[in-house]
Amino acid sequence: MNAASSTASPVTREAALRIALAARALPDVKVSAFVRALGDRLGTPVTEAKLARMTVADIKAMLQGDEIVDPGVDAGALKAAVRYLWGEGIDDGAPVPDANAPVGDGLLRVAVASNAGEMLDGHFGSCSRFLIYLVSETGIFLSDVRSTRATDDAEDRNVARAELIADCHLAYMQSIGGPAAAKVVRAGIHPVKYPVGGAARAVLAQLQGTLLSPPPWLAKLLGRQPASLQRYMPGEEFDA
User: Fold this and answer.
1) 1.25.40.620, 3.10.310.50, 3.40.50.2300, 1.10.150.590: CATH of 3-86
2) What does each C-alpha distance from 34 to 137, 212, 220 come to in angstroms?
3) pLDDT per residue over 75-117, tens digit each?
């Protein structure tokens, strides 16, 4: 390592937070050693854009090459570290469920893949949490916030994530792969891909507007007779 690369370069607070959390996710890794390894691999300054390009293969090669971690480090820890480098899974002020959220049957329960606030901005397999909403003709209520961190070590993360939201009728996300979508459907959940994302309540307001005359598949979920065969659901849906 030359003198230039050993000189600390300024990083933003966001980049520093991502790096620190990623280092903590890896066993026996010191933050200072991890920072040096990232700087050598990515070049300085280390920016959010550079961190977002890191992959599990990149970080494993980097760590093994610098011998700062056991080459046999758990795959779940590597995945968690990479997610932190991408800016996912960071505590950014998770929303608080509505105090007046109703209880009981007959409500449409919807999971929303999210990384920040009350935004629909996550991919099914990598979002940091699912926001659970209750949707009726008269209101949209945030009833629960479920972290996905516990699913990182699962043998099949997509199955574990589907189980996490198994009590929901629908799941909205910006992206989901075909195999993962099939696992969600097998869990009894209807996945809806909504690539543009946006404020979760605004997206769900579109769904709410279909409840007076729902399409057949949604009417079946609600235990109603469909008013027509017209398709109302916004976004790209996956048939069961």
Assistant:
1) 1.10.150.590
2) 51, 55, 52
3) 777 887 888 888 876 665 678 888 888 876 668 999 999 988 8
